[in-house]
Amino acid sequence: MPRLYRFPGLVAALLLCALSMTATEYHGRVTYGGLPLPGATIVASQGEQKVVAVTGLDGMYSFPNLADGDWSIQIEMLCFAPVKKDVTIAFGVPTAEWELKLLSAEEIKATSVAAPPPQALTTSAATPAAATPAAAAAKPNAKKGKGAALPPVNTASGFQRTDVNASATPPAPSEAAGAAPAGGDASDSFAINGSVNNGAASAFGQSQAFGNNRRGPGSLYNGAFQIVADNSALDAAPYSITGQNTPKAAQQRLTFGASVGGPLRIPHLINPNSAPTFFIAYQLMRNRNATTNPYLVPTALQREGDISPTDTIPQSMISPQALSLLRFYPLPNFTSSSVYNYQTAIRSTQAQDQLTSRLTSKTIKRSNQLFGGFSFQNTRNQNNNLFGFLDHTNTLGYDINANWQHRFTQRMFMTYKVDFNRSTTRVMPFFENKENVSGEAGITGNNQNPLNWGPPSLSFSSGIAGLSDGNQATNKNQTASAGLTGYFIRSPHNFTFVADYRRQQFNSLSQANPRGSFSFTGLATGTDFSDFLLGVPDTSSIAFGNADKYFRSNVYDAGVTDDWRVTPGLTLNIGVRWEYSSPISEKYGRLVNLDIANGYSAETPVIGYMPTGSLTHQSYPSSLVRPDKAGFEPRLGLAWRPISGSSLVVRAGYGVNYNTSVYQTIASQMAQQSPLSKSLSVQNSSADPLTLANGFNGSPISTPNTFAIDPNFRVGYTHSWQVSIQRDLPGSLILNATYLGIKGTRGVQSFYPNTYPAGAANPCPSCPVGYIYVTSNGDSIRESGNIQLRRRLHNGITATLVYTYAKSIDDAALGGRGGGGQVIAQNWLDLRAERGLSNFDQRHLVNFNMQYTTGEGVRGGTLLDGWRGTAFKEWTITAAVNAGSGTPLTPGYFSTLTGTSCISCIRPNYTGASLYAAPAGLFLNPLAFSAPLPGQFGNAGRDIIEGPDQFSFNASMARTFRYKTRYNLDVRLDTTNSLNHVNYSSWVTNVTSPSFGSATGANGMRTVQATLRMRF
């Protein structure tokens, strides 16, 4: 493979010929009092990129080439309150509806006499907020592009509004770390020669209805066709960490979309003057993907019992159950010094059909407007694995919403909405109704229902590929919601009121672990595969029964905020929000928790349907977890310009966010418990011997339940505070420095009570073991500093450089987006020993984005004509570089935690040797760790290993070809990993594996994607 950095010319050519993200047409209508409002300025900004449009006589505007993703849209017009919101641009986004508010005479006078410089003040250091006294008066829904007014999404001030399917989780620190987008000068985009918006954006531009530029009646309707194609013929071959030349598997990805929108005019049925507008979009996606992965599989000699020169198992002693399961393993297809011996491409397919529609009425009697939408999605996935088990997953869902906006006065209006969505997911594993693998192998005690046929799961501490397949499931979930949002303007205050209610249903027909799981660590013979051949597992676990579950939950929220323009140079955003999600209950009370005695000395099952009047019924609610209704979230934000007329802006914010999404996982685990289900998590011992044939029988020394939660469990929350300083610099530069802190409280902690290290005496032989206990006593802290340097668009070039230094520490799973999964403590009596770096902690991160538009100025080629001008002008080239340090990994010593089935809960001893002084072929030093001493837990900390560094370079090239002003053809090429740079995904951190310190795999290599879109 050529080293591209040795050929700067080739790299430069890639920069000019590659392409980044797809683009989408985004259009909308601006009105006042229900009537079209021409001449309004619309600024769309994404990072450092800004594009400008102006509304025509029909109040319509259009951005033909917005890259898919999150954009900030701001609308301004003299004498009207500006409006700003964040939207997500993607194919099929309906026409946006905007209603501007007329300022009072006092406000008009104040803004004309004492208006601040172009960088509008925002009221939060975490997210942009209103820049003027009435800026919060009309913030439409940023989630779905509706005309309904909603408060801004804000981590430190304002309100965080969640959609009907979304949980109002606290933002992950990695997501909240970004600096607030600074208010910018719309003139950044004026210099783009030949762009669609340049004529309207410049000082000399004319609106669509001026002079000879007036369009015909056909312009009331617009549509688009889109094709996005990617074929592996243009992609680089996957990187092989074993050095094997595995043929590149064929891949194809195709997306087709079509949309149409305009007034719904039906002769003799709908009056043309009052016709509503409609929008319909359809998208089809057909993907065939493949990933090339290495594996370790048993050799032919090992299958016959020849494990090593000193470990041989006679054929007569090999378990028939082991031989039956071994037939699914492929034989090695190569031999090398690598710890792997098998490599192949794993293929999967995805098909999706999506329909989106929207209908918006014209204003009724100048004070009412109705709008709503319907969307539908059907997805079919086929996922394969190493063993050729092809599983199918089908999802069918739809969403219906209706909204009514009523204006009481010019200063007060309210939006009411209702929404209903439902989805059905069906998972069909390979062996469903096909072959009873466990029954034929003589494995008893697991579920023999034809829906759950298949092999049990196998895991090996040495790194041998584990045998597994998916579980059958049919899930039907639905949410019905109603809400209102109101705005009241009384200069210099802008009040926002919100209230919502959601009724959530999660209906599931599935089993948690119906076929059971076995793990092998070599405890019996010293070698995990020898234990397997002998049919002696070290642990087993299973959970099935109570298949049909009907979970129910109610979610409430309400809040008020005041966007207060104290002075022209000071804006405050003050508010409070209350949010409550009830603990999830089961419709028929089929939940089981454990009532734990003091000191974890005894446990008693508690069932949700206990008879009324019983002691248990009086002590516990039907959810078996007591509600936490104290979810008050104060918010405070400010934006301050300390020197009048200066570009210096100081922003600060503080807010509280609750993680109300934790209950669903809790309810799922409580629903799969004894006595309603068969549930076990046991360890092989002389008192409780296990075999492959009868490893799922009841244990005389372990509890028949595997999960318990503190009935006084409390919802976790975060305190977020942020301060930023922004200032203009010479040379069209803007500097922004930001500090962010996030303190997490009531994090989820999980541990196994009454466990002890191997080799130690059992401190309480009569105490129950084998179940996980969950509490809310964890905490976390994350602090970060961020420096951003941005170059405004000048001579066709704009760029942004951002450096972030951050550190995050916790002793629990934070929950929420990016917060990490369950963390099970090694020593249940020393939970503080789990305190370490968060698994998403990234110490250093650098982001660089650059955009170049051809045809700028005399030197840029504006004056070129003929074929040279046609070939050179109007290209937009972008490049994005992201480089960062690795995220933490935890060293593991795969040995059974006494009394449980957990083989990954133990950590090794740290010897003091350098972690990264690795021998050739490895990335970690095996001598840095050793086995824990007898009777002690390992002293290695959690997340002490730094994972692989991260680097990505993506680029794009795009252009729009126009025909007769109305037809536009967009052409794009996209590349990811344009330099074909190898990025390792992770290291093997299991010190009992011979592959410790090697790479687990590599991320994707270069891909090329082409996009064609016709708009009219």
Structure description:
The protein has 1016 residues and is mainly beta. The strands form 10 sheets. The chain has a 22-stranded antiparallel beta barrel. Strands 1, 2, 5 and 9 form a 4-stranded mixed beta sheet that branches. A hairpin with a 2-residue loop joins β21 and β22. It is globular and about 90 Å long. The chain starts with 7 loop residues before the first helix and ends with a strand.
Low-confidence stretches: 1-23, 109-218, 611-617, 815-820, 856-861
> On the 0-100 scale, what is the average pLDDT?
82
Amount of helix: under 10%
What coarse outline follows from CA principal-axis ratios? globular
Radius of gyration: 31 Å
Tell me what portion of residues adopts beta-strand conformation: 35-45%
Largest sheet geometry: 22 strands, antiparallel, barrel
Q: What's the total helix number? A: 12
Distance between the termini: 44 Å
| Secondary structural class | mainly beta
**What is the total tally of β strands?**
49
